[in-house]
Every structure is written in structure tokens, then in C-alpha cells.
Amino acid sequence: MPDTTWEIKATMRTPIGTAELQALTERARSLRLDILDMTTRAGSGHPSSSFSATEIVTALYFGGILRYRPAEPDWPERDRFIMSKGHAAPLLYAALADAGYFDRTELLRLREVDSPVQGHPIQGMMPGVEATTGSLGQGLSVGLGHVLGGRLNGLSYRVYVLLGDGECQAGQIWEAAMAAAHFRADNLVAIIDYNKYQETGPISREMALEPLVDKWQSFGWHVEEVDGHDLGALIETLRGLQQVRGAPSVLIAHTVKGKGVSFVEADYTFHGRALTPEQAARAREEILCKQ
Amino acid sequence: MQAIARQDDSADNMRAARSERANLGRARPMRDAFGEALLDLCRANPRVVVLDGDLGNSTKADLVRQAFPGRFFNLGIAESNLVGVGAGLASCGFIPFIVSFSSFLLCNAYDQIRLAIALSNLNVKVVGSHGGITLGKDGPTQMGIEDLALVGGLPTFVILVPSDPVSMHKAVQAAAAHTGPVFLRSSRMALPPIYRQDACPFEIGRANVVRQGHDVAIIACGIMVAAALEAADELAGEGIQARVLDMHTIRPMDRAAIVAAARETGAIVTAEEHLLHGGMGANIARVVAESYPVPMRFVGLADTYVESGDPGALLVKYHLTSRDIARAVREALQAKGGGEG
């Protein structure tokens, strides 16, 4: 047993109101439409990996979890969000634009020459992008660096890192997991978008991750699981993790790859593929109709 | 030019030149000079933090651990994570010095250095200790014979290879003063002083002429600068006056100094403790070919791995001595003469 203690203080959880939930659901719908438009216009990208994490990112940016100032992207006390699964860049860009970091018209320049909206996020090119990612496995280490930097600067912000499930096959994730527990990085939260698929197929078939909870626990992390499309549950769980002391936390969010568009959910080969304009029109109808 | 520049006239001056260098002081391990320089830097600049890959006792980064434990992080034997953590700290406004063996950092964590530091253009300093072959007995698994080629593939990196303990101190300061990624090569080897304590110009991107001469130019970096000076002394006995350049910055490269050397001497020999493929000499050759083609010869490691052994014996076996440089100079001069004839 690691010599960490985690005590979850009795939390004063404000239940999320119906109106707020409804507003967040609309946000998520809007983000999905942006992702669809961006990737179909670009003719490439990873819409299904973005769709699976849409509620997670909605909860973080618009559900009162992250503290940030879009007009001051380098605000030293901001909470950090690192999109370690960099292929979900369309989701990150859509959320940043929606949050006010830059103009929404930038979104339609995804993957174009002379555009800062790169296919995978590059730190320094767009405000709000905290790390260069796309070669998987790297974001959690950068997040730990922000934790240590915050300590040296006497700041108490929190650091959230979104990992892909396939990404957890990378050795660097486990190097970072070991180090974060060692440094008792209790303001570090990893969120795993556990959609059960990697590029070439089901995770369980290609390179199994289970038992995933046990792996993180054995590395000294506090582990929670949640339905990654339930905005209310996501927000409540993320709030609860803010009370964990002495150890970093990981939230395993069970998701559906391609969530929100039936024929994308049913076909994992959409991983690195944009929808055609015709498919996008059908997808748009579905996204708009979902309650 | 503040560096020691001499115009030897005869072989008699060879001994004088050697004794002049000897007067500068004893040879000292480069890693000791590095550790002391890093400690001085930490004293002067509170934003400097040091990240270790569990080799602080070997790289001498441990000096900082003792003096500033709060600014020293051992991330263990996990170079990929080490580099990522450094990137995060740089994003918080710190100046991380990531220190480990050159080979372990660049070979284990190349992709992390590429994305998190180079592509992000962050203010991180990567210090590759034990570069080259002169760590000796630990053998080829630990040797950094390809580090300059690898970091050469990271376009935003400044690349520094100091040649003696005095210039190491200057290089550490220059690395910190430069905003952006810097690679600094350190080594285990004890090196004789080339510069006087108070007289080492170290400007990034500007080579130092450490010996004047007009017959041939020897352009060297790191431990090979001292060997080049030895070779120049030997050649002076044959009536050959060699200019010696300390190319302490591999990128950005001092094109003006290279072109001047080509134009004014008509023959160039490069010398480096590194693979010839993708090293300093190859990059100098590109400048020469583009700007002022002259005969060139290259001292360095041909396509080969090195083995365990006494560093001095390895330098002899793998042709990285002053004698090898002098031989290359004679060949270059022959080609130069042939060209003229």
C-alpha cells in the first residue's frame, strides 16, 4: 500500500439544476456541430474521438470546473487543461472558441496552410493550448510539470489532463503516473476517455488495458469511474475530486466512440476519417434531434 | 579577439605554446566545471530549476541538489517523463535544465524533446553529459556519439559544445541567457584550459579563433579543440601555420568565420568527437560547398560504434588525436596544392 492517504472531505455538493444541465447539453450539441463542420470542411481529422470526449470537455470548460480567463490566456493562476489525446484537437479548438479564447471563424481554417489551427495542437500557436500533443503519451508529464511549477510559484491551481484509452498503452503515461504519486500531486486529475476503441480496433482485442482501475490504484492514484456522457455525473465527480488530498486522481470516463451519431458509433473505422458532406448532413440531423 | 592567438614562426615555439597553455592551469573534468557553473547560475537566477534523470552524481548536477533542494527534482530513470515535466515547468516561467547522459536523453526521449520542447519552442535547456566516447570504460551503450546529429534534427534548438572548463562556464550562462531551447554537451573527460579565466568570449553563433594561421584552418568543437591546438603546434614544426577555430556553437553556425577560413587559408579540416554522419563537419561542409569550396578533410567517427576502454586508448584507436588531425591537414594541403597545380 502506498504511503498516501486520501481523505474525501464531506462535500457540499450543490446539485446541478435542470436548467443548467439543459444549457450544458446545448453546449455539447453545439460543440459536436462545430467538430463536424471543421473536420468535414478540412476533409480529414478525428471526429469520432472528439465526439466521445465532448461531454467531458463541456463539463470542464462550461460546468464550472476550470477557472480561466480567455482574455488573459497566460493568467498564472488559471487551471490547466491539457488535451493529451491530441487527435481530439477539433474538440479542444471548438471549446476554446466557445469559451472566448479566439474568434469562431478560426475554426473553419482547421488544417489549412497558413492557419494556426493545426491538425494536432501546437503550444503557442493558439491561445489556450497548453501543450503540444499528437504523439500520444506525453500530456500527463507536462501536466505534472505544471503541478511542480505551481508549487514553486505558490499557486494552487488544478491541472486536468485528458487521456485516450489507447494512449494508456504508452510507457510514458506510467512513468508520469509513478512520478505524480511520488510527488503527491493531488491537484492533478487525469481523465480517461474510455471509449474502448483504438485506431485499428477494439482495445480488448488489440492491446488490452484491463484491469484499468487496479493499474491506477496500484500506482498510488485515487480512482473514480463515471458515465462520460452524463454531464451531471461528470461535474459532480470532478467536484468531488477537488477534495482528494495526498494523491493524484484519475477519472475513468466510460464513453462511446463517435457518440451522438449512430452510424459513426457503429463504425470504429471513422477514427481518423472525416465524414463526407452527405454523411455530415445526416449526422447534423441526428445531433440536432438528440435530446 | 580575447582568446589566445599565436603566430608561431618555428618549431621552437611549439614547446613555448604548450607551456603557455600549461600555464593556464591544470586539466579539469568538464562535468565538474558544468556542475559548478550550474550552481553559480542557480545562485544568480531563482527561475532556474534542475531536473535530473537519476545521474546527478555523474553529471555533477548534484551540486545544485545540495544547495537548492527545492529547485532540484530527480524524476528517476524515466527520461520521457523527465522531459515532459521540464516542458511543464518552462510553461510556468521557470528555466529548466534537464541534465542526464546525452545518449539517454536524446535516444530515450527524442520524441518528447521534439514535441514538448522543440516544436513548442519552450525555454528548456537540455544538457547531455558524457557526450562522445571519452566516458570510456562504460562502453558504447552509454556513449553519446550521435547526439549532435539527433539534436540537429530539432530545428529550434541552439547547440553548444564548449571546449574547456572556462568556456563551459560561459556556455551555461549563455544557455540561460538565450530564450528558447538549447542543447549543451558536457563530458566526463578532464580537459586542459584553452582560455584564460577572464578572457573567453562566448557569443552564441560566433566561433572563436584560438590560433591564427593562413595555410589551413582546423575547425573543432569540444575536446577536439585542444587536440587541434596540439596538431597546430606539431604542424608549425613543418612550417605549416594552421588557424584553429573553436566552433562552440553548432547551431546557429558561424558562416562568416567558416567562409573567412576557406577564403583565407584555402583548406579546412574539421575535428569532432562524434559520428561524421550528421555532425559538425558535415554542416561546415555544407557552408563551404555553398559559399567557397576548398579541399576539406574530416576527423571524427566513421560509421562505427566504439567499445569499452581507457579514453586515451580509444581516442588513439578511433583516430581522434592531434596526430590524426595533423595527418588530415597534410592530406588537405596536398589536395589544395594539387588544385593549384
Question: What labels would you give this structure?
Answer:
heterodimer; A: 291 residues; alpha/beta; Rossmann fold; 5-stranded parallel beta sheet; two-stranded antiparallel ribbon; 11 helices; 7 strands; globular; disordered N terminus; B: 341 residues; 2 domains; 7-stranded mixed beta sheet; 5-stranded mixed beta sheet; 14 helices; 14 strands; 18% strand
3D structure, described in words:
The complex is a heterodimer of chains A (291) and B (341). Chain A has 291 residues and is α/β, with parallel strands linked by helices. Chain A has a single domain, classed as 3-Layer(aba) Sandwich (Rossmann fold). Chain A has 11 helices and 7 strands. Chain A has a 5-stranded parallel beta sheet with strand order 1-2-3-7-6, with helices on both faces. In chain A, strands 4-5 form a two-stranded antiparallel ribbon. In chain A, helix 6 links the parallel strand 2 and strand 3 (188-194). Chain B has 341 residues and is of the alpha/beta class. Chain B has 2 domains: 12-25 and 198-340, Rossmann fold, CATH 3.40.50.920; 28-191, Thiamin diphosphate (ThDP)-binding fold, Pyr/PP domains (Rossmann fold, 3-Layer(aba) Sandwich). Helices cover 43% and strands 18% of the residues of chain B. Chain B contains 14 helices and 14 strands. Chain B has helices at residues 12-23, 30-44, 56-59, 62-67, 79-91, 102-108, 110-119, 147-152, 165-177, 224-236, 255-265, 280-291, 311-317, 322-340; strands at residues 28-29, 48-52, 72-74, 95-101, 125-129, 158-160, 182-185, 190-191, 208-211, 216-220, 242-246, 249-251, 268-275, 296-301. In chain B, the strands form 3 sheets. Chain B has a 7-stranded mixed beta sheet, sandwiched between helices. Chain B has a 5-stranded mixed beta sheet with strand order 9-11-10-13-14, sandwiched between helices. In chain B, strands 1-8 form a two-stranded antiparallel ribbon. In chain B, strand 6 (158-160), helix 9 and strand 7 form a beta-alpha-beta unit. The radius of gyration of chain B is 19 Å and the shape is globular. Residues 1-10 of chain B have low confidence and may be disordered. Chain A binds chain B through residues 76, 122-124, 130-135, 137-150, 152-153, 171-172, 175-176, 178-179, 182, and chain B through 49, 70-71, 73, 75-76, 78, 80-94, 111-112, 114-116, 119-122.
